[in-house]
Design brief:
Elements lengths: L2 E6 L5 H11 L9 E4 L16 H12 L5 E3 L12 H7 L2 H5 L10 E4 L9 E4 L7 E11 L3 E2 L1 H5 L6 H11 L2 H14 L4 E11 L7 E11 L2 H12 L8 H8 L11 E3 L26 H6 L1 H4 L5 E2 L9 H5 L5 E3 L3 E3 L9 H5 L5 E2 L4 H8 L2
Parallel strand pairs: 1-10, 2-3, 2-6, 6-8
Antiparallel strand pairs: 1-9, 4-5, 6-7, 8-9, 11-14, 12-13
Helix pairs in contact: 1-2, 7-9
Bound molecules: iron/sulfur cluster (2 copies).
């Protein structure tokens, strides 16, 4: 039985928690080449709850530094250029400063590799993975519109350069296929240690524009599926098989998803009133959590939900037009979504720096979702 640690933490105490994690999991990276992969989804400041808190990144770097100087810190943001651009993301998130001399733009070199996926041949993966001995996955406690949660398994989608991620959304489209791909990438290089930043989490329609939620905790474990299971249960997924990545990963033998079979060190509690993403709930007046299977069965209806532009927030920057893998957005002068092209991937909502592309929440669209 593997252990998942839950500890209260703040930016001030996070180093102490990281030391405890290194002790508990007997992290020995003496002389080894270590890769620390935070969640650097886009150019957001730490208070937005989107990217891994730099205080945690710094604490992990310092803990590793006590044993080795061969450290690399990096991630692939949503886009290699523009708003999600690598350097701007690293700077705004505070991760470049936290990583110091160990920061690397890992998006510049990638190789097509066989990850053993039945869905896609030859997936571009950042070359850094070939250079390392020890992999520390530093995920974020967030919801995700399509996948239910971000967390440890989904965090490895960032091993692909940004533009490839959008391409995969377009090629696979259906969330069932996408979640299988997340598991395929996780299986290709299972992290040696997983640490989840839940200092500030995100509820609702994450991973970029949900609601920031102060949680004040750090989670950790050597099995990312099991850490994600604990995280999903804290969010209120019951059973956690509603999160397809966990269901698939468990069936593939990658981790336990029965909470009774996971040893939890620390205080586990379901977070009161934690809001799940829109694709996982029925209309607010009659809350009902859907299983992912039900969501998939209804995909042709979910697929009719198109992003909506909020003109008051929109700066007409054109990022969403560039991001959209289906070429469904044009600016006139605000973004207009071509219904017949849109694949409801919500990359535009994820990538808009202003939170001006949103998943609509009005009853009319809910009706389209759940009826007929
Ligand atoms: S919706 Fe967002 S990304 Fe698109 S043009 Fe407006 S501000 Fe830019
Ligand atoms: S308009 Fe948005 S949701 Fe639709 S395909 Fe483009 S990026 Fe995806």
């Amino acid at each position: 039985m593997s252990k998942v640690l839950i500890r209260n933490a703040s930016e001030e105490t996070v180093r102490k928690v990281v030391d405890e994690i290194f002790d508990l999991y007997k992290v020995n990276v003496k002389g080894k080449r270590v890769f620390i992969k935070p969640n650097m989804l886009g150019a957001y400041t730490p208070d937005k709850g989107v990217t891994t808190n730099p205080a945690l990144v710094k604490a992990i770097v310092q803990a590793c530094e006590a044993q080795t100087d061969k450290i690399i810190v990096g991630d692939n943001p949503m886009r290699a250029l523009g708003v999600g651009g690598m350097d701007r993301t690293a700077e705004l998130s505070g991760i470049r400063e936290a990583a110091g001399k160990y920061y690397r733009n890992i998006g510049q070199e990638a190789d097509k590799v066989d990850i053993g996926s039945k869905l896609v041949d030859g997936v571009p993966i950042s070359r850094v993975l070939k250079e390392i001995d020890f992999f520390i996955n530093v995920a974020k406690f967030k919801t995700h519109i399509l996948a239910g949660i971000t967390g440890c398994v989904k965090n490895l989608f960032g091993l692909m350069p940004g533009s490839v991620k959008a391409e995969m959304h377009f090629r696979l489209q259906h969330p069932k296929a996408l979640t299988q791909l997340f598991v395929d990438i996780y299986r290709y290089r299972i992290p040696d240690l997983n640490i989840v930043d839940a200092l500030l989490g995100m509820e609702g329609d994450g991973p970029s524009h949900g609601r920031v939620k102060k949680i004040g905790k750090i989670l950790a474990g050597t099995n990312g599926v099991e850490v994600d299971t604990v995280m999903a249960a804290m969010m209120g997924y019951d059973p956690v098989t509603k999160v397809k990545t966990l269901d698939i990963a468990n069936k593939e033998g990658l981790g336990e998803i029965d909470l009774d079979k996971i040893e939890i060190i620390g205080d586990f509690e379901k977070i009161p009133d934690f809001e799940l993403p829109i694709g996982y709930i029925a209309p607010r007046e009659a809350p009902q959590v859907l299983s992912l299977e039900e969501s998939y069965d209804n995909w042709h209806k979910i697929g009719t939900i198109r992003p909506m532009n909020i003109e008051e927030k929109c700066t007409m920057c054109g990022e969403c037009e560039d991001i959209c893998p289906a070429g469904a957005i044009s600016l006139d002068p605000y973004p207009v979504v071509a219904e017949d092209k849109c694949i409801s991937c919500f990359c535009c909502a994820e990538g808009c720096p202003e939170g001006a592309m949103v998943v609509p929440e009005n009853a009319h669209l809910y009706e389209r979702f759940f009826s007929g």
